[in-house]
Each structure stands twice: as C-alpha cells, then as structure tokens.
Specification:
Layout: E1 17-25, E2 34-40, E3 46-49, H1 57-64, H2 85-94, E4 109-113, H3 119-126, E5 130-135, H4 141-147, E6 151-153, E7 166-172, H5 181-189, E8 192-203, H6 208-213, E9 227-228, H7 231-240, E10 243-251, H8 254-263, H9 290-305, H10 307-319, E11 325-332, H11 333-336
Parallel strand pairs: 4-5, 4-7, 5-6, 7-8
Antiparallel strand pairs: 1-2, 2-3, 3-9, 8-11, 10-11
C-alpha cells in the first residue's frame, strides 16, 4: 500500500485537505497501487492522494492505457466537415460537444494539450485550423506518424513547438490528469495570443451521477484522474491563476451514461485489468452465474432501445447544470481588465 502524505494542500485554492479513510484503486486497467480521496473544505475540490508526479505519467499511460492496441487507421473523423449543422446537432444530442476544438475557426493555430489518439487534431484540420497536440502516451507516436499529425510526445514543460503562439488552447478531459494544474495554467498563458481563449473540459464531481453512484462513479478513474473538479473549485483555480471565466456549462455524453450502467454490472479487482474497459475484449459482465448474464443482456437491450430517452434525460440534466462534464471557456484577466470579477 502507498504511503499517504496527509500534509498535501488543495491544488485549486491551497487550503488543507480532509482525508477519507477508505482506499480506492484502478478499476479499469490494473494499476496495482492504493490511493485515497481527500476533500478541500474551502472550495470542494477532491484530490487523489498520493498525487503522482509529472515524471510518473509517461510510464503510467504507456504501460496501462489501452492505446497500444489501437490501429492507427481506426482513428478517423466524419467525411464531411465537423462544422456542418447536421454534425453540430448530432454532437449536441449525443453529448459529444463537451470538447474545445469545436470553437476553432479556419486559420487558427490550436493546441490540444493531452490530445490522446489525435482525433481532435483530425477534426481541427478538417475545419481549416492549424492543429498541434501534446500527449504523454508514447503509443500515440505511431498514430501521429500515420496521419501526419503535429504531436509532441512528452509534456508542456518540454517547451514544444517553440515560437508558436496559439489562438486557442484546449484541454479536453485533461486538466484532472495534470499533477500541478495551477502551474500549467500559468505557463499556458505565455503561449496564447492576445485575446486568445482557453477551453477546459473536465468531469464534474458535482454532477447528479456522481452523487447518485458514489464510489462507483466511473469518472473517479483512479489514479489517472489526480483532481476531481466541480464548478466552484474550477472557477477558483482559474481566478487564482489569472484567468477570467467567459462561460460555463455542463454536457453529459450519452456514451458515459451507458458505460456507467455497464460498470455497475462489473466487478473490479485491484491490480487486474477489467475486461469491460479493454478495446480488444467485449464488455461482458464479470459477475459469475446465470442471473448476472441475464441481467447483462437485459441491460444491453435497455441501453440500445433506451438511447432516445437517455438523450432527453441528459440534455435536461445539462440544462440545470448537473451534467457529468464541465466545459469552461477562459480568457486572460488582463484582456478584460484587472477589475473584472
């Protein structure tokens, strides 16, 4: 079991953390470590403790994340432009517009920090933007080569793409993976053009699904998610690092809800990869017995035919700000004036 540093401070506001007694572990990919969740009484942020260091991330993702099995040719985008109204409507209905690249315009220089398999960069290229990516997972290098994408394998601390200033910087479900988010947000300001925007999308630890499912909520995603943000603490982090919030909303991908329901049917063992999360193994229930198999089949049927209802439910949840993913748009404070709230 890991040694837990009970002196760790909140990454959003710097206040002391209150530590829970239960340990948590990787219920997806089989990382063997034990961790705790610690809550900040001041801003409500939740931290995974012990917090991994930046130097730990390349090995963590390269070894445990499933991209090593991904066929580069399988990373594609729709044949027509992502900006077409039909695609915009489809993304809204499915909840897949919880990503920052859709605010890009032709000719923009756009950096996707933590670009994953690079699909966002393909979309940006189709939208006429000049796309750059940063990714810690070395398995992405062959995908970048296959699609001729500008992806730096490493971190922002390497000073990638020197001399390039960006109109838009996006962090799609990435800030929660970064050991020192305040430090990175400060550094990103130096690579943004005057008037440029920063778009941050993170899982919402204040969502109705988090409250409903508790420890079984899929977006704890231990230990890859080091920080668990809600609306208040993310706004506090932005303000602390000199960013002014322009807009905020919640967006719930319907696929996340399907995965959440399936996760309730699986049993995870510490240090053992969960077959539900493997791209090469069907997402079957791991509970033994006929009853579990029947329940799993019923769930598959229900999610298939219940998708329209799920879409309506998630759009309503988003409307009241309780959705599973937060999307924040920031500009630098000095752009709008030092006295702005």
């Amino acid at each position: 079991m890991n040694d837990f540093d009970t002196t760790a401070a909140c990454a959003c506001c710097g206040a002391a953390l209150s530590f829970g007694s239960e340990t948590v572990f990787d219920d997806r990919y089989g990382h063997p470590g034990s961790f705790r969740l610690a809550c900040c009484a001041s801003c409500g942020a939740i931290e995974t403790v012990p917090r991994l260091a930046e130097k730990d991330l390349p090995a963590l993702y390269t070894q445990y994340y499933p991209r090593r099995e991904l066929d580069p040719g399988a990373v594609t985008v729709p044949a027509d432009s992502p900006d077409r109204w039909e695609n915009r409507l489809s993304r809204w209905w499915q909840g897949t517009d919880n990503q920052g690249q859709y605010g890009a315009k032709p000719g923009m220089a756009v950096l996707d920090y933590g670009c994953g398999a690079g699909q966002s960069l393909l979309e940006l290229r189709a939208m006429g933007a000049d796309a750059y990516g940063i990714e810690a997972d070395a398995n992405v290098a062959r995908i970048a080569a296959h699609h001729q994408l500008q992806i730096h394998i490493g971190s922002f601390y390497d000073n990638p793409f020197p001399g390039v200033k960006f109109d838009l910087i996006i962090l799609n479900q990435v800030l929660e993976h970064i050991p020192e988010p305040a430090k990175v947000l400060n550094l990103l300001a130096g690579r943004l053009k005057s008037g440029g925007r920063l778009v941050v999308a993170v899982p919402n630890a204040g969502s109705i699904y988090c409250r409903l499912f508790g420890k079984r909520w899929i977006n704890w995603h231990i230990p890859y998610h080091l920080h668990h943000f809600n609306r208040s603490c993310l706004k506090a982090l932005g303000r602390r690092t000199g960013w002014r919030l322009l807009s905020a909303r919640t967006i719930t991908p319907n696929l996340w809800t399907v995965l959440q329901l399936r996760a309730l049917m699986s049993v995870a063992e510490q240090g053992v990869p969960n077959p539900m999360w493997s791209p090469s193994v069907p997402a079957i229930a791991t509970r033994p017995g006929l009853g579990a198999r029947v329940a799993w089949r019923a769930l598959q049927v229900a999610t298939r035919f219940g998708m329209p209802l799920m879409g309506v439910l998630n759009r309503l949840i988003d409307r009241v700000g309780m959705g599973d993913s937060l999307l924040f748009v920031f500009v630098r404070q000095e752009v709008l004036g030092a006295n702005s709230e």
